[in-house]
Amino acid sequence: MTALLSSSPLSQPFFQHAVLAGTLIAAACGLVGYFLVLRAQVFTADALSHVAFTGAMAALAFGGDLRLGLLAATVAGALLFGALGRRARPDDVVIGSVFSWVLGLGAFFVTLYTTSRSTADGSAGVSVLFGSIFGISAAHAATAALLAAGVCLVMLVAARPLLFATVDEAVAAARGVPVRLLGYGFLAVAGASAAEATQAVGSLLLLGLLAAPAGAAIRLTDRPYRALALSVGLGVTEMWAGLFASYTVPQMPPSFAIMATATTVYAATFLIRRPVPRTC
Length: 280
Description:
Helix content is about 75%, strand content about 0%. The protein is an all-alpha fold. Helix 2 (about 15-40) runs parallel beside helix 7 (about 140-165), helix 3 crosses helix 9 (about 180-200) and helix 9 packs across helix 10. Mean pLDDT is about 85; it is low at about 1-5. It is found in: Cell membrane; Membrane.
């Protein structure tokens, strides 16, 4: 019995840290991702993945904390996109004009980090790109969980006015809803979520963690609050499934397992036929 308990993944400290951070990160991404999809701002999340990589490598190049660089860069980048767009809604031209340059800047910081610092860790860039959730420490897991919980709280408080501003921006503005301020606030929260998601699945795959659960939820129901809850539930379930799958098959990286699960669930929604509303 003791041997069985010791072989359980939940008895391993590194797995406990991954579950703690991963659960809250997935919940935050589910909430933010729903509005990214609903507001047609998924491309913004893609751009933030490039910003996350650049911010992390810039922090390392100048001797700073990687996680602080991630958070500062993604939030600042999201606000910049909003400032360049109309009513804090960046368009594709703005994003496309900026994010490729940002990725090139990231490559510069990688070179600067590896050539100018004698103690440089050559695997740091790979860790940022693909995530390292099984390598997260207890302190960093707690910090990530607290930040993600803060994102969840902000999104729950702002959900109703943000939904109103998303569905009918003109009417919301006429009713006194601070549409522009909400847009900036949402982008800042999306940037924080991108920074947290990078720690779980890496900057290359964070778009999937933000978009796949939300996309599946929207395909399964037209009711906004039900879809919001479903997006969170799917995100957390997919996170758990990916972590357990990666633990069971050590050759499978956790980021791949998480995103493979999320993609499979999203693809499965195309097999579900939703009832067609009757017309009188």
